[in-house]
Design a protein that fits this description.
The chain is an alpha+beta fold. The protein folds into 3 domains: about 30-130, no CATH class; about 145-245, Rossmann fold; about 280-465, Hnrnp arginine n-methyltransferase1, CATH 2.70.160. The protein has 11 helices and 24 strands. It has helices spanning about 95-105, 120-140, 145-150, 155-165, 165-170, 185-190, 205-215, 255-265, 290-295, 310-320, 380-390, and strands at about 30, 35, 50, 60, 75, 90, 90-95, 105-110, 110-115, 175-180, 195-200, 220-225, 240-245, 265-275, 275-285, 320-325, 335-340, 355-360, 365-380, 400, 415-425, 430-440, 445-455, 455-465. The strands form 6 sheets. Strands 15, 16, 17, 19, 20 and 21 form a 6-stranded antiparallel β-sheet that branches. The chain has a 5-stranded parallel β-sheet with strand order 12-11-10-13-14, with helices on both faces. A 4-stranded antiparallel β-sheet has the order 3-4-2-8. The protein is globular. The protein binds S-adenosylmethionine.
Amino acid sequence: MENEGNNDGSENPVAITGSGIDTDGGESLQIGSEIDTNGGESEEKQIGSEIDTNYGGESQQIGSEIDTNAGESKEEQIGSEIDGGEREEVQTVSETDADFRKMFGISIPRQNIVVENEEAKADIIRRRRKDCDKGFFSNYDDVTVHRNMIQDTHRMEAYNSAVLFYKDRIEGKVIVDVGCGTGILSIFCAKAGARKVYAIEASQMALHAKSIIEANGLSHIINVLHTTVEDATIAEEVDVIISEWMGHMLFQENMLPSVISARDRWLAVGGLVLPTSATLYMAPFSDSQRYHQKIGFWSDVDGIDMSVLIPPTTSVVCRFPSVETVEHDCLLAEPHQVIMVDMYSITSSDVDLITTSFRFHSRRSALLHGFVLWFVADFSDEAVHHDERDSIEVESAPALSTAPDAPSTHWEQTLLNCPDPLHVEEDQVIEGILTIKIDESDHRLLRICLNYGLDGELIELETQF
Ligand SMILES: C[S@@+](CC[C@H](N)C(=O)[O-])C[C@H]1O[C@@H](n2cnc3c(N)ncnc32)[C@H](O)[C@@H]1O
C-alpha cells in the first residue's frame, strides 16, 4: 500500500528515545495513542502512517509517542474524553515532555482509561481496532493503489506462477482469497480450475471486484464477500488460502493476522497457504550519493555554507523509515534474517513483538548511512513437494523477492536512516538490536527501535511506520 508521509520540518533531535506505552498495572488498560498534527514541510517519499482515528469524526495523523514523566512536579493536563462512559484516568505530562511535544508538533495526547471489567476492556479494544481499520480500508478504496499493485509485474508473475505451480492442488478445490482487492488472485485461481473461490474484501474495491468478475464470466465460481475476513462466515472448509498481505518491510499494515485468522478458521487439514512463508532481511548500507543529495549538499550550495540546515534536514530524513530503491552495491554486508514467517505455524502473538540482534562484518571501509530491509515471499511447500514431487513439472516453486538485487517492485526497500553517518573499517563489526512492535493502541502501526553501533557503543533510533 502507498502510505503518505508524516512530514515534519521542525528542528528537533533525531533519535527519539524512551518512548513506549506505560502499563498501569492491575485492572487499568491503556489504549490511547498520541497524535501528530504535523504541520511541517513535506519530504519526498517519507513514510509515516496516516490513519483515521475517527475520534469525533476527525482524521488525524499518528505521530511519535513520548514517555511521560509522572515524577515531574509542573504538569500540563492533556487528557481528553473517551466515549462510552468508561471511568477515565487523565494523562498528564511534565513540562519537559510538553516541550518535547511542542517540538514534535504533538498536540493530542494518548489516553489512559481505567475500565472496570474484562468485557468492557474487550469492547473498547474492538472499537479502537475498527476505528483504525476504517482509515486502513479507505486507503484501499483508491483505485490507483490497486493500479500500482497490478502494474507490479514481478509481484504479478510470482503469484500467477505460484497458482500454476499448484494447479493440481487448486483444480476442483475451494479457495479463500484474503483481501482480494480487484479480485485478481481469485481470477488466477478460477482460471486454474478452482471449483469455488471466496474473495473477501473489506474496502469499497469489493464492488469493483464483483463487476470485474462478472465481466469475465466468473461469477459462478467466485463469490465476493464485501466484509472483513474477521467478520466473514464461510460454511465449509477450504483447501487453499491465497493472499497478498505483505507490507513494506513485510509487516507494515499488519495484515498477517487476518490471514492467520482465515487459516485457523477455515483451512482443511493438509491445505495450502500461498505464499507458504515470508522472510524479512536487513543489511547495513552506505550510499554517499543519496546522503549528499538529501542532506550533505547543504554544506556547499554554490560555494555558500548552509550547513546549519543539516541538523533539521537530518531530523526530517531520519524521523520515519523511507521507501526507496537501493543498489545492491550499497550493501555493506551479507543480509541478516530478522524473522522467517512459516504460514502454517505462525501465530499473531509471534509477530506482536519481533526482536533480533545482528552482527555484520563490513565488506569495506565506508560510511554507514543506515540499514535497509526487504522481504522474500516463498511459495515452496516442502511437505507437498516431498509427496508429490514426481507430479510437479515445474522445477521449483516461485519466490517473490524484494531484495536490492531482485527486479524492482512497488515495495522497493525500506530504509532506516542513521542520523549521523558512522565511519566503518573493512571487517569492522556493526552490531545491534532491532525491535519491531505492533502498536498497542493502533494495530496498523509499527513501532521500530533500532540500537546500532560499532565497538559496543550503541545509538538508539526510534521510529514508526
Ligand atoms: C495488498 S492488497 C492486495 C489486493 C489483491 N489481493 C491483489 O493482489 O492485488 C490487500 C487487500 O486486502 C484487503 N484487506 C486487508 N485486510 C483485510 C481484512 N481483514 N478483511 C478484508 N479485506 C482485507 C485490503 O483492503 C486490500 O484491498
